[in-house]
């Protein structure tokens, strides 16, 4: 059993409050007494509990986790990422306080952090046109954004190499002989959409295939919208042999639309998604994809946040994680 403040007080011959004030650097404790208390604490291997330590340092050992938009509705992308956040925070003895979209709709994120006394926050699902983004950049509260390349006073981000991941996926299709690759992109307020579009364009450039913006659709990262957009596109144009989607959910929507009009996958159209959600291996055929390290993304977000919280440092360097092109049954040569 570890020593308590009472044990230290009895050993030194002072009150428990004196021990507590000495260990927390209050300046009204005699320096000689302080040194004696510290020496006894070291000898007895005294370790303050997390709550007491947090109160003394004006910390709550709590991280706010904001899940916004569709992400907060059980989105498949978020599941492993949240698991990574929970794993890393548990190891560091931090609690997680979950915020949903409805809780912050009328308030700023910083205001909610202050009201609930969190030490820092991780925000997932925020858009680049969010009215509170500038406030986040200038905040004194440590913030980690997921997939939003914004840095500020105590703000940084964790993301993947989106340009390179999209580039490799599209180039892979083109090397298989697919000259016309449809791109089902997300929405205009997601920086990852712009990055993956950039990768799509670079693949055209390197493979010396003319870029055609008529082959770029917008599925808003939703399966049903991607299905509707693909269905409309098919009514106007069937002159393509492959589809690259900026998310697996949209790729599944594309598959739904193709199957509805009896277009065979991959015999007639090959498909690659992005994320590697669990549903990829439960489709027929199984979906090829660009795998993001979502669990590690959550872990790295916590690690970066704690570096700012524990060390009092300003914004840490952004983290860009590697990807993996995973080829399954939804792709074949043209």
Automatic annotation (TrEMBL):
Keywords: DNA-binding, Transcription, Transcription regulation
Transmembrane segments: none
PROSITE patterns linked: HTH_LACI_1 (PS00356), HTH_LACI_2 (PS50932)
Name of protein: Transcriptional regulator
Cited Gene3D superfamilies: 3.40.50.2300, lambda repressor-like DNA-binding domains
Organism domain of life: Bacteria
SUPFAM superfamilies to which the protein is assigned, alphabetical: lambda repressor-like DNA-binding domains, Periplasmic binding protein-like I
Recorded GO MF terms: DNA-binding transcription factor activity; transcription cis-regulatory region binding
Keyword DNA-binding: yes
Native species: Halobacteroides halobius (strain ATCC 35273 / DSM 5150 / MD-1)
Domain HTH lacI-type: 3-57
Pfam families for this protein: LacI, Peripla_BP_3
